[in-house]
Amino acid sequence: MKERKKIKDTKVGVWLKDKAPQVLDTVGDLLPDQGALGVVKRLIDLEPNMTAQEKMEFEKMIMEYEANAQDNVTERWNADMMSDSWLSKNVRPMILMYLILSFTIFVITDSIENVAFNINENYVDVFSVLMTTAFTAYFAGRSYEKIKLNKR
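-> C-alpha cells emitted (152 positions)
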C-alpha cells in the first residue's frame, strides 16, 4: 500500500513553510485527505499577515490538489471497471442500493405507529455520514469524470 504523505511533505506544506509557518506547525502532521485541508484553508482565511494574492495563490493550489486527488480516484475506479472481478465492478452500486434500501426500511418502520422502533442517535449520525459520502463520491465523482472527458 502506498504511504500517504502528511501535509508538511506536500507542495502545500512547502508553500505553508514559506508563507505561514505557524499554520504548518499546527497542521503539518495531519493527512490532507482526512479533512485537514479544510482546516488549513480556514486557518489561512483567518491569517492576518497574508495578502489577498497569497490567499488566492493558496486557493489555486488547493484546487489543483483536489483535482489531482479526484483524478486518482477516477484512475482507481477505471482500474476496477477493467478488472475481471464482478465484485470490483459492482461494489459501489451495491453499496448505494444497500444504503437506499436500509434508509427506506428505517423510514417506513419509523412511520408505523404500533411499532416501537428507536435507533440510537450515534447510528443515525454514522448512517448520515455514510450516505452523504457514498452519494457524493458516486454521483459527484461521476459528474467530474464526465466534465473532464468533455474537456479533452
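The radius of gyration is 20 Å.
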